[in-house]
Amino acid sequence: xxxxxxxxxxxxxxxxxxxxxxxxxxxxxxxxxxxxxxxxxxxxxxxxxxxxxxxxxxxxxxxxxxxxxxxxxxxxxxxxxxxxxxxxxxxxxxxxxxxxxxxxxxxxxxxxxxxxxxxxxxxxxxxxxxxxxxxxxxxxxxxxxxxxxxxxxxxxxxxxxxxxxxxxxxxxxxxxxxxxxxxxxxxxxxxxxxxxxxxxxxxxxxxxxxxxxxxxxxxxxxxxxxxxxxxxxxxxxxxxxxxxxxxxxxxxxxxxxxxxxxxxxxxxxxxxxxxxxxxxxxxxxxxxxxxxxxxxxxxxxxxxxxxxxxxxxxxxxxxxxxxxxxxxxxxxxxxxxxxxxxxxxxxxxxxxxxxxxxxxxxxxxxxxxxxxxxx
Length: 375
Ligand code: GLU
Fold this sequence. Notes:
By secondary structure, the chain is an alpha/beta fold. It has helices spanning 18-21, 30-45, 57-65, 74-97, 110-114, 116-131, 154-165, 201-208, 219-231, 246-251, 265-275, 287-294, 336-342, 350-354, and strands spanning 11-16, 49-54, 103-108, 135-140, 169-174, 179-180, 192-193, 195-196, 235-240, 256-259, 281-285, 304-309, 316-320, 326-331, 368-370. The protein has 2 domains: 6-265, Carbamate kinase; 275-370, PUA domain (Archaeosine Trna-guanine Transglycosylase, Chain: A, domain 4).
């Protein structure tokens, strides 16, 4: 069985669970984190983009504030998250800084990945950070999220982040080295599963029986996260992080389960756009913009001849060629009113027309599907 190779992947999301990061004293396990930072620096050096989704805020905050996690109320845990998060991200800042890597804190709530307008904002902020070789350190915004509006666990959050940034691989660092045919702590006959092509009901059932020693997730949430990510074209790895430099170990062949992606992130995104039922408006383009979109570019306001319908930022719009034939669909970066104001505008005129500094593109090429010519 060939082992996992980072070579096949460019944009990586690494999920770090509390059990790895927090030492017995309830504080950050500094040595382990330094090892992780060395691994991240190694991957950066090889040209990979890295995003980290890290738990640990509540655990660290409970230590600092002397809160007993088991007896605490929600508001105590939220207070703990506020105190713990600042220390957590500071630790990342220091260990990554040793390698001259800048860390940036990003706190998300489900609305940021589930609501399309906010999704566009979160996506463009994260892309800007990655363009500048910054490592986003992401956690749930536990301080304001209440039970009803929580991701609930960081495995799911990491899968949503992978989907948002169109990552090629999601690595869930856990306290187990992958999925087994039965719970390995209970059954001697449990067999390690190295590769999963399709997440079937049988796989979900196996995962449901296996609990991890610590952490809120267990194997079931990992397989559910893998299901979200693989459908978004992102392969998912579950491997043990309970060693120093777990990513180097993974590259050297340490044991893991790989859940294979269904298609690529781009094909998954385009399939979703092409199949969307609710199209809220249309943009008619000139011949130059039509050619540019067919060649894979984003749509600039200058190429828009007319705007139809009533849409908001994040809604799906049709793109029409000069004859009025629909040849694609995309997520609008501007509302219909704003689009009408800047249609035909050169980029440098956008601010003057809108009265504020807008975005450069009307449709981003990642959020755009162009139908093939024979459609
Ligand atoms: N967001 C939580 C924290 O930072 C952890 C959630 C989880 O471990 O899944 O403490």
